[in-house]
Amino acid sequence: MATLRFHSLIGNLGSIPALSSCSNPRMSASFHCNSKGEKRVSRMTVKAMGAAKYKGTQMREKQLAEMIEKKVTEAKEVCEGDETSDECKVAWDEVEEISQAKADLRLRLEIEKKDPLEFFCQENPETEECRVYED
Amino acid sequence: MAVCTIYTTQSLKSTCSISTPTKTHLGFHQKQVVFYSTGKRTSKRGSSSSCGPCVITCSAGDSQTVVIGLAADSGCGKSTFMRRLTSVFGGAAEPPKGGNPDSNTLISDMTTVICLDDYHSLDRTGRKEKGVTALDPKANNFDLMYEQVKALKSGVAVDKPIYNHVTGLLDPPELIKPPKILVIEGLHPMFDERVRDLLDFSIYLDISNEVKFAWKIQRDMAERGHSLESIKASIEARKPDFDAFIDPQKQYADAVIEVLPTQLIPGDNEGRVLRVRLIMKEGVKHFSPVYLFDEGSTISWIPCGRKLTCSYPGIKFHYGPDTYFGNEVSILEMDGQFDRLDELIYVESHLSNISAKFYGEVTQQMLKHADFPGSNNGTGLFQTIVGLKIRDLYEQITASKTAAPLEATKA
């Protein structure tokens, strides 16, 4: 997952301006930039840049990423019949929930630089999830 | 039975508890201090005691926890607003140590932030079965929410459930001790009338659809599986429930922070530059709205000019009285961005009633978190100011209880 930084201000909110991601080789790898300079998200896997320290957290990140993909596919299928059905809105609500959970984890790792398992792993360093993740 | 009564002034810095076990041998979740004294003893503050072990209870009913409600659709407890707020009071807010790593709760010295998703009555499977989203009141246990917020407000600790956002299950509860300031954050802090009545102050974060879309693009675009279409579809699918259940809460809020696309750049809907409006209810106890230059008048202000040079698109302020859902309000609005420190301090020096403790406090707080989203626009500015107003509100409430009798009873 590419770290997104806009202009010179870190964490500036807003959508991705058309030009900067397409001229930036690091970001254009994750976006197909077509002739109009518009972006589409590539299906290519981008290497995680989060500061996941423990294996458990790294697995969690992976799990959430997979869940997002799965839930989006599910939602599209469910909504094919009736977009206004209860099942459809519940399916997209789940997508939202998982997307937010992944974003929260990423925020914690990248901005706060704290692994959620930190305290647990100090007490239980020998567990499988507390193996320090080696890149 | 000897009764020791000690009078104390509660201020921001002092703590009521001295050393407190959370659960005593009596089994109550109460703040208790045990004094062992031999013979008669005269304290300079109070009457003398001839008791053996004296148990002094920080009486729950007198020292109330201040409760703040924050309605937001952007996850809980980890939001930028919460971070700014807890930072105003000092200390970083952390999840409870040694507990469930998936806890949504944040605790700092002064504040505890509870995520209202913890009061889901239906877990993810349950919601799927019943066909309800998390936005639907049917998925939430308002009775439990009311009981526990009420208990915390009156100084009693509670065992609060944990909703695990990753697994979608309800995990075993965690102990929450009553803090000085309790913040309840989530989708429905003002939905239930009983809970609403417990709030000393409430805020609603109102993000317009265009801005929400832009923010969610930034959040999700790099995720495998997401595309502009899926992000849009997700927002659209949730909109009916959002409009029906969440949006109406804004009429009850004491302060609404409305985030809209800028009007400074014609045709701009990318959500890069933001127009932010701080809508403040008049007549709220312990809360005096922020104003520009002349309270109650209508002002349009562009700070950029001879004294201050700003880069494109500049900054524009507006202030004036208005009505909002039938309530008298004052609205302070900022459109544009701060590019430099001196712009920020210049603006701060012209705002009134911001409840800062020293000149430049708002700027200092903003700089402290320059990496947070919104640090260069009205969202960061108004969130920080609201944080200072809440501090002011807290101090006013606690100062009005200058005599908080602590009763000591023989153990």
Separate helix tally of chain A:
5
Query: What is the chain-wise order of helices and strands of chain B?
Result: EEEEHEEHHEEEHEHHEEEEEEHEHHE
Mean pLDDT of chain B: 84
Structural Rg of chain A: 18 Å
Strand content of chain B is: 15-25%
Assign an overall shape of chain A.
elongated
H/E element sequence of chain A: HHEEHHH
Tally of individual helices of chain B: 9
Helix and strand content put the structural class of chain A at mainly alpha
Strand sequence of the main sheet of chain B, in spatial order? 5-6-9-4-10-11-12-16-15-14
For the sheet with most strands of chain A, the description reads: 2 strands, antiparallel
Mean pLDDT of chain A: 69
Radius of gyration computed on alpha carbons of chain B: 23 Å
Strand residue content of chain A: under 5%
Q: Stretches of chain B where pLDDT falls below 50 for ≥5 residues?
A: 1-62, 403-411
Give the helix proportion of chain A (percent range). 40-55%
Describe the structure.
The complex is a heterodimer of chains A (135) and B (411). With 135 residues, chain A is mainly alpha-helical. Chain A has a domain of 69 residues. Chain A is 52% helix and 4% strand. Chain A contains five helices and two strands, in the order ααββααα. A two-stranded antiparallel ribbon of chain A has the order 1-2. In chain A, helix 3 packs antiparallel against helix 4. The N terminus of chain A is likely disordered. In chain B, helix 5 packs across helix 6. Chain B is built from nine helices and 18 strands. In chain B, strands 5-6-9-4-10-11-12-16-15-14 form a ten-stranded mixed sheet. In chain B, strands 1-18-3-2 form a four-stranded antiparallel sheet, with no helix packed on it. Chain B folds into two domains: 143 residues, P-loop containing nucleotide triphosphate hydrolases (Rossmann fold, 3-Layer(aba) Sandwich), CATH 3.40.50.300; 146 residues, no CATH class. The longest helix of chain B has 22 residues. The N terminus and C terminus of chain B are likely disordered. Chain B has 411 residues and is an alpha+beta fold. Classes of the chains: A mainly alpha (135), B alpha+beta (411).
